[in-house]
């Protein structure tokens, strides 16, 4: 099997809770770019599908609108794919509950992006085998 000439990719564009843009505005702006993309509005933002370079271009452009509150992630299937389409399968699609949990953290990520701070990580010392054995023996008692 030879590699595709123009590989296609699908990305989810997720609006953080504090985003300065609604999903309706997001989709409208994506359409206004007039790029050869499949664009689907979703409850969390949008899904875009097309040639990898075009998708990358759209994401770079749309993130300029609100760089600390617009996030993206890969999606393994294009919009409307019957293997994942909720309309054809019923119920929430696989990964939706994971996305819900990730969404809960996005406000923290947004705040960190808006107010970056230098962080120093202290390197921990290794526990000697003797101390580890001693701790294990204490736990067994």
What attributes characterize this protein structure?
Alpha-Beta Plaits; alpha+beta; four-stranded antiparallel sheet; 4 strands; single chain; elongated; 141 residues
Per-chain topology:
Layout: E1 8-15, H1 23-32, E2 38-41, E3 45-51, H2 52-63, E4 70-74, H3 86-89, H4 96-114, H5 129-140
Antiparallel strand pairs: 1-3, 1-4, 2-3
| Helix proportion | 40-55%
First and last CA, distance: 61 Å
The CATH topology is what? Alpha-Beta Plaits
Rg to the nearest angstrom? 22 Å
The count of β-strands is: 4
Strand content: 15-25%
The low-confidence runs, each spanning 5 or more residues with pLDDT under 50, are none
Q: What is the strand arrangement across the widest sheet? A: 2-3-1-4
* Class of secondary structure makeup: alpha+beta
The arrangement of helices and strands along the chain is EHEEHEHHH
List the domain count as a whole number: 1
What is the annotated CATH architecture?
A: 2-Layer Sandwich
Q: Could you describe the largest sheet, including whether it forms a barrel?
A: 4 strands, antiparallel
CATH structural class: Alpha Beta
Mean pLDDT: 85
**In DSSP terms, counting alpha (H) and pi (I) runs of 4 or more, how many helices?**
5
Overall morphology: elongated
